[in-house]
Amino acid sequence: MQNNNLSARDLAVIWHPYTQMQTAPAPIGIVRGAGALLFDEQDNAYIDATSSWWVNIHGHAHPHIAKQLAAQALELEHCIFAGYTHPPAVNLAERLLQLLGGQQGKVFYSDNGSTAVEVALKMALQYWDNKGMPRRNILAFKNAYHGDTFGAMSVSGRSVFTRVFDDLLFDVHFLDVPAPGNLDELIAHIKKIDPSTIAAFIFEPLLQGSGGMIMYDKTTFDKLLQYCAGEKILLIADEVMTGFGRTGPDFAMQQVSVEPDMICLSKGLTGGTMALGVTTSTNTIYEAFLSADKLKTLFHGHSFTANPLACTAALASLDLFLDPACKANRERINALHQSFLLTLQANPLVKNPRLLGTVLAFEIVTSHADGYTNSLADKVHAFFRERRLMLRPLGNTLYILPPYCITDEQLHTIYNAITTFLHTLS
Ligand SMILES: *Cc1c(COP(=O)(O)O)cnc(C)c1O
């Protein structure tokens, strides 16, 4: 296969995700990666400023992950996971549960973030059913994003993403995101629904990703979770994007006092190498499915459940994640982001600059309404593309979410380009 014409060949045969194919510029062909860089067919380097849709935490084509993966491929590439098991699945479950600490007792594997969410929702609803006290209501936050399959869309905020399907999605009660002073309002909302009918509350802890990199109040969130736990509402922490150090600590839930009943993981789980989803549960939830009655079984599974290659990539990614150098890198990025935040705060074209862990975000002031379809997005995307920076805004929300190995110099290149772009607007 020849190189140098990937994008033309692509357009003849491929339909891309989240892309208006009529107006979007032709895709750039990427042939290799190293660290925070991706290289096109002419060997031009692009800085991956958003970790390739937030999955790549250790940089591209990392040799440690690649070697483990290659060795596993020669050993066992796949195996049915009902009635059989294998070392990568068991090793990964042991290590993940240890890392998560607390009361997480079991790991259920699937393929991606959306499926991890689907599994958690089914576990929660069936938990109550199995116990003979069905609860059918579900709580979520406005503006939430939990994935693109129907269950995951149902618990996501109604938006341009879900519009065409809204009438087919199941009903969910949406709460405002926690803010200083709105706890009473949130609790009143839940009381009106009747907490004893609420099976579960699913949330992105502290940081809503696709909804626009919204960072919300930790203290109110913590108290809200305490109230829900008191009402025995099952807490599903969707850490698909916040997991593996993105918000600072290993997991965002380490910043609050309440433990979730279930945790969804994906994205950073394999370091961006293979598709893999995990839903963990407490033993209390697990035990509600144990019965001589087969109808109490969790009837869920995917062909590629616990794929050995994906589990191996996750184990290798964990090795890198647990190396103290990873935490040091996250702190280094956070410190650099902090000084750029001060520059942004002084810029009148910047609204609500904010920072959590390695995620820096802000809105660009425009005459149009904020939001995903804001027309500035295409202009922003094109500007950075020309400068070989992969920054894909969410509407007029611009954010940096880099691989932890990004260098200081690469970060400064991104900051400078953002500053230049803001100049072109003034
Ligand atoms: C991306 C994302 C998902 C969906 O994951 P996919 O692997 O894209 O299906 C779910 N929840 C959150 C918080 C996400 O950011």
TrEMBL record:
Its cofactor is pyridoxal 5'-phosphate. GO terms for molecular function: 2 iron, 2 sulfur cluster binding; adenosylmethionine-8-amino-7-oxononanoate transaminase activity; dethiobiotin synthase activity; pyridoxal phosphate binding. It holds the Pfam family Aminotran_3. CDD domains: OAT_like (cd00610). Catalyzes the transfer of the alpha-amino group from S-adenosyl-L-methionine (SAM) to 7-keto-8-aminopelargonic acid (KAPA) to form 7,8-diaminopelargonic acid (DAPA). It is the only aminotransferase known to utilize SAM as an amino donor. Substrate binds at residues 53, 145, 267, 301, 392. GO terms for biological process: biotin biosynthetic process. Pyridoxal 5'-phosphate binds at residues 113-114, 238, 302-303. This is Adenosylmethionine-8-amino-7-oxononanoate aminotransferase. It comes from the Bacteria. The record marks 18 as: Participates in the substrate recognition with KAPA and in a stacking interaction with the adenine ring of SAM. Keywords: Aminotransferase, Biotin biosynthesis, Cytoplasm, Pyridoxal phosphate, S-adenosyl-L-methionine, Transferase. The keyword Glycoprotein does not apply. It comes from Chitinophaga terrae (ex Kim and Jung 2007). Belongs to the class-III pyridoxal-phosphate-dependent aminotransferase family. BioA subfamily. The keyword S-adenosyl-L-methionine applies. The gene is bioA. GO terms for cellular component: cytoplasm. Its EC number is 2.6.1.62. It is found in: Cytoplasm. The modification N6-(pyridoxal phosphate)lysine is found at residue 267. Pathway: Cofactor biosynthesis; biotin biosynthesis; 7,8-diaminononanoate from 8-amino-7-oxononanoate (SAM route): step 1/1.
